[in-house]
């Protein structure tokens, strides 16, 4: 087989078989660029190792110990912490609560965010103010948002209870009823995060070529058919990105749960169970580390499944 090389100007020169291309010499400029590259990359790699990978490995080590938080001694017990969690009667409830919270908050944020983005994509007066108002809850502190919403759901002094009593109803007890507590947390979490999904979807809508929408209209397609057959498939990269990031954020949601339901009655997800076991009075550091490791494994599995299977359905224009 004859190898070829391209000369400047487009002409092609054949290279005799068996004759290798001469290796490019490592010049002084290349060495300078290499050292600059190392000077820029190595500090960041060191920080990632120190503050990202090292805590993960340390958490994995603690999960194999019978260790009371703050105690100077610990006993190696192997996988007993994992076995105790997986065989505990409360584990099924915790996993179910985590699943319901993730599905409801991710689905609610994305659906409402898409509907808001469709409304904000129209050229009407006040669109800029509306976009800022929709996105602002996402940048607010979760602690502050939770405290404000407590004055809405409080059965005694809350706004919702006052309105219901005005019309002859009774105020639901959102704090002591586990099901209502989970509903309350989901509503507040969706309200806080749907603005993020709306802004990302709005950017996706504005990147769709107008030619495709005009061609669809000329072919007589209705707005509904155009949305499902043209717009929604072209938004699939945006939907895929939002799905991955929203699932990861929901599985790590903590601040709203801690502020609105500190006892975790009906709202104990995996990450909140890890907090309660370590800092909620039990001081079981090893057991908490095992719960955190299980959550980390679920995050990795969900991400890999989404990248492996769902990316095939994404249409990149």
TrEMBL record:
This protein's GO CC annotations = plasma membrane
UniProt GO BP: transmembrane transport
Membrane topology, as annotated, equals: Multi-pass membrane protein
Where is this chain's protein located in or outside the cell?
A: Cell membrane
Q: Which UniProt keywords apply?
A: Cell membrane, Membrane, Transmembrane, Transmembrane helix, Transport
Top-level taxon: Bacteria
Presence of keyword Membrane: yes
ABC transmembrane type-1 domain sequence ranges: 95-306
Spans annotated as Disordered: 1-25
Segments crossing the lipid bilayer = 34-53, 94-120, 132-152, 182-205, 226-248, 285-305
Q: Which SUPFAM superfamilies match?
A: MetI-like
Q: Which PROSITE patterns match?
A: ABC_TM1 (PS50928)
The keyword Transmembrane is assigned to this record: yes
Q: Name one Pfam family in it.
A: BPD_transp_1
Q: Using the UniProt record, give the first listed, main subcellular location.
A: membrane
In the record, the note on similarity to other proteins reads:
Belongs to the binding-protein-dependent transport system permease family.
Recorded protein name is sn-glycerol-3-phosphate transport system permease protein UgpA
Q: Which organism is it from?
A: Pseudonocardia autotrophica
